[in-house]
């Protein structure tokens, strides 16, 4: 039974990746939501919008920003974000500077 489920899972994800191709236009100067948990996917308005469901309590976004463009992302209470600068550089909240291949964790605790 586990083997059948594994085969179904591989086929499902190959199909999902084939259908939901991330284009440069979708992430240029904006956040593109690419992965989310199955629980949120099944009840979300994102259904069919290119968001791939995974078995984790996780959301993954990608973006490519032009120099000088600001992007805002508001974390829900008791959530955290892990930000990776793939290339170039970026500044977070005017005080944290990342260069290519740098990463940082950002969290919002319940006050």
Count of helices?
3
Structural class: alpha+beta
Question: How are the strands ordered across the major sheet?
Answer: 2-1-3
Give the low-confidence spans.
1-6
Helical residues, percent: 25-40%
Largest sheet: 3 strands, mixed
Shape: globular
Mean pLDDT: 77
Radius of gyration: 16 Å
Order of helices and strands: HHEHEEEEEE
Provide the descriptors you would attach to this structure in a database record.
111 residues, alpha+beta, three-stranded mixed sheet, two-stranded antiparallel ribbon, 25% helix, globular, disordered N terminus
Walk me through this protein's architecture.
This protein is α+β, with helices and mostly antiparallel strands. Helix content is 25%, strand content 29%. The strands form 3 sheets. The chain has a 3-stranded mixed β-sheet.
What layout of secondary structure does this protein have?
Layout: H1 2-19, H2 24-27, E1 32-37, H3 38-43, E2 52-54, E3 60-62, E4 79-84, E5 89-92, E6 96-99, E7 103-108
Parallel strand pairs: 1-2
Antiparallel strand pairs: 1-3, 4-7, 5-6
In short:
The protein is of the alpha+beta class and 111 residues long. It contains three helices and seven strands. The protein has a three-stranded mixed β-sheet with strand order 2-1-3. Strands 4-7 form a two-stranded antiparallel ribbon.
């Amino acid at each position: 039974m586990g083997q059948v489920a594994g085969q179904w899972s591989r086929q499902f994800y190959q199909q999902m990746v084939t259908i939901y191709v991330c284009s440069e236009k979708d992430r240029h100067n904006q956040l593109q939501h690419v992965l989310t948990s199955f629980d949120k996917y099944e009840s979300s308005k994102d259904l069919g919008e290119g968001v791939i469901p995974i078995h984790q309590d996780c959301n993954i976004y990608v973006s490519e920003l032009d120099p000088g463009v600001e992007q805002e992302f508001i974390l829900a209470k008791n959530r955290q974000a892990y930000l990776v600068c793939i290339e170039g550089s970026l500044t977070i909240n005017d005080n944290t500077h990342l260069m290519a291949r740098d990463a940082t964790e950002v969290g919002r605790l319940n006050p």
